[in-house]
Amino acid sequence: MGDFNLTVILDAIRRSPGGLSRVELAQIVGLSPQTISNISRRLLDQSLIVEAGKEGTGPGKPRTMLRLNPAGMYAVGVHLDPAVLTFVVLDLVGAVVKHSRVKTPSGADPGAVIGTIAAEINQLVADSGVDRAKIAGLGVASPGPIDLEEGTVVDPPLLLGWHRVPLRDALAEATGLSTLVDKDVTSAAVAETWAGGPSGAGSFVFMYMGTGIGCGIVLNDEVVRGTSGNAGEIGHIMVDPDGPPCDCGIRGCVKSSCIPQVLVAQAEAAGILDGSRQDRSAPAIQDSFAELCAAAYAGNEKAAEIIDKSAVLVARAVSSVTNTLDVDRVVFGGPFWTSLSQAYLARIPGLVEESSATRKIHAIEVVGTGVGEDVAAIGAACLVLEHMLAPRSQRLLLEG
Ligand SMILES: [Zn+2]
């Protein structure tokens, strides 16, 4: 009786929020009633599942339902964004027990950021009241590019001074927690599959509106990471032939036309925002960007034009991606999404529909994330739960 069977059973239980009886479990996973009985005993002993009432309306004796025990295990998630650090503690069913946010220390010193993250995790875990021994691990969502195997962050364009920083090992050492690192956009997509409800099922792209623009990809319920864990780098999709020059050498990439920093600069040039401000740090851009969106919603026509034009251009990038991957849905989220959602949801669904190569076959839904603003941090913690719970063929090979 290997651990593979155990994770198969846990996974089946987690996918059924109402719980499953032992008989249903045996049918779903195709193991013998004896094996199901033995493994559920082990899981009950470890407090990972609980017996939750009896169900059954037909003849025969009612069945005891097995459910995940939310308090059986926990995971910590961190989202490292150039502007803000977000922290969550999740329980075993993926519900947020505690969360916090602090501004990312400015300057080009990864050591200072890692120190801040470790201190904040200690504080958060203490505040949550969760027994540290029940924390399965730490997941970290980082801007790409990352080296998934090495757990390093490799010169992300918006984190100065981060040359091959061994983020995974540094945080494992600083916190004493076993640590996983994944790209922010991928973490967001993982969160959507765990906690997004209907918007996290099937095939979708997660359009991540952060300091940069990237996407997470889920096809047929599987997260797509690519060879090195860096799939979804869509910043250089060209959306405007006459647009501003990009650092890649061509003009009008979605990155050079639509990221918050660019829209803020346009608003300053148009006199909507005060252009004399010196602070160009990521947190300052976030504040200016919120101001621009507020002006647009308050009826400032020039501000509304800037946001509307960006919606049209982002829709072009989205259409390239959806036509390439043939998905059911586009889910928007990320730190700048709250400001953008009203304008983008009014504009982008129609444009994506118009440009869809499959519009005569199926519609493409465009929605905001069902997980909320902490989506990348929640996804990072879900990575830990997934690592613990999800059956993987690798585990089968090693232990089966
Ligand atoms: Zn470019």
Number of β-strand runs: 15
Give me the strand/helix succession.
Answer: HEHHEEEEEHEEEHEHEEEHHHHEHEHH
Q: What is the assembly state of the chains in this entry?
A: single chain
Domain module count: 3
CATH class of the largest domain: Alpha Beta
Helix content: 40-55%
Strand content: 15-25%
Shape: globular
CATH superfamily grouping of the largest domain? ATPase, nucleotide binding domain
Strand order of the largest sheet: 6-5-4-7-10
Would you kindly provide a written description of the structure presented here, covering whatever features stand out?
The chain is α/β, with parallel strands linked by helices. The protein folds into three domains: 3-68, Arc Repressor Mutant, subunit A (Orthogonal Bundle), CATH 1.10.10.10; 72-190 and 376-389, 2-Layer Sandwich (Nucleotidyltransferase, domain 5), CATH 3.30.420.40; 197-370, Nucleotidyltransferase, domain 5, CATH 3.30.420. Helix content is 42%, strand content 20%. The protein contains 13 helices and 15 strands. The strands form four sheets. Strands 6-5-4-7-10 form a five-stranded mixed sheet, with helices on both faces. Strands 13-12-11-14-15 form a five-stranded mixed sheet, with helices on both faces. A three-stranded antiparallel sheet has the order 1-3-2. Helix 1 crosses helix 3 (33-45) and helix 6 (184-195) crosses helix 12 (375-389). It is globular and about 75 Å long. The termini are close together. The structure holds zinc ion (ZN). Zinc ion binds at residues 236, 246, 248, 250, 253, 255-256.
